[in-house]
Amino acid sequence: GRYDEAINIYQQVIDRNVNEASPYNGLGWVFLVLGRHDEARNAFLHAIELDPKYISAWNGLGKTYASIGRNDEAIAAFRQAIKLDPSFTFSWNSLGGILMDLGNASDAVKAFEEAIRIAPQTASSWNGLGSVYTRIDQRAEAIDAFQRAIKLEPRAAEAYNGLGFAYACQGRADEAIASYLEAIELDAKYALPHYNLGKIYSQLGRDDEAVASFQKAIRLGPGSGSAHVSLAACQRKRGKSAEAEKQLAIARQLIEKEKEYDRALYASVCGKTDEALALLSIALNKKQVPASWACLDPDLGSIRDDPRFLALTGEG
């Protein structure tokens, strides 16, 4: 398709001039989109070898390393891009995103705030800041940041999804549902708001709607083990044990690649209390979700009354 055509064009340019950095950079970004990470890394490194000040190639290299879990190298690449051009907001946002995923909330906030200082009209920077604030339970600040992102980019489905989750963490179910539905309206192929919507419906006992939402999330993003876990838990509530076990069997094949919080959900639904609590402890320390959401997540219902859960979440 289009990507194969792009690869061929870049390769033809390279064949005519092997010492030009830009086609290697372009090739790297195409490979990155396709998930061909080794080829992307090699292309970006070749571009950097030809032009050590090529900022886009440093950012691409950072994105590639982040995609394969080589986080230290990703951070180093983003910092090099920032060193070359401290005013390039993409680099600050990329750095903030990986620092957030590593649980380094304070430095992530600083990175997004720097991006906003440089270009306050950039919606993605406000969205990133809102995501960090959500994870550290700064609820008012999170909602404000997402609302600013939406004001700047009214069709930003990701910001509506983030706003929905910020509301969900506060138990504001109606507002969360409205935000998730708006995200879905804006981007029908965006799996995450369907999954998040299912969580709220499950929490409210609207199990038929929850099942439909989880099934839609799975169709759009079939590699999500956590969506299968949530669907299994919901089917079990509806008395459909065979379907629940089928979904857990699928989740079992996927869940080990996911974050500790998602694995905690799987362990909880499977009745593995000690494992669920151990994984939840790691997830909360890494700030993968705020404790406020762990206290509301329907898939952690089996461990919620355990004193260790109460100690972890500060609810005891």
What is the overall number of helices?
19
The CATH architecture classification of the domain at 189-258 is Alpha Horseshoe
Distance between the termini: 56 Å
Highest CATH level, the class of the domain at 189-258: Mainly Alpha
Q: Topology, pairings included?
A:
Layout: H1 2-16, H2 21-33, H3 37-50, H4 55-67, H5 71-84, H6 89-101, H7 105-118, H8 123-135, H9 139-152, H10 157-169, H11 173-186, H12 191-203, H13 207-220, H14 225-237, H15 241-254, H16 260-269, H17 273-285, H18 291-294, H19 307-313
Q: What is the compact description of this entry?
A:
By secondary structure, this protein is mostly helical. Helices cover 75% and strands 0% of the residues.
Which features does this protein show?
316 residues; mainly alpha; 19 helices; Serine Threonine Protein Phosphatase 5, Tetratricopeptide repeat; 0% strand
Question: What do you see in this structure?
Answer:
The protein is mostly helical and 316 residues long. Among the domains are: 189-258, Serine Threonine Protein Phosphatase 5, Tetratricopeptide repeat (Alpha Horseshoe), CATH 1.25.40.10; 259-315. The protein has 19 helices and no strands. The chain starts with a helix and ends with a helix.
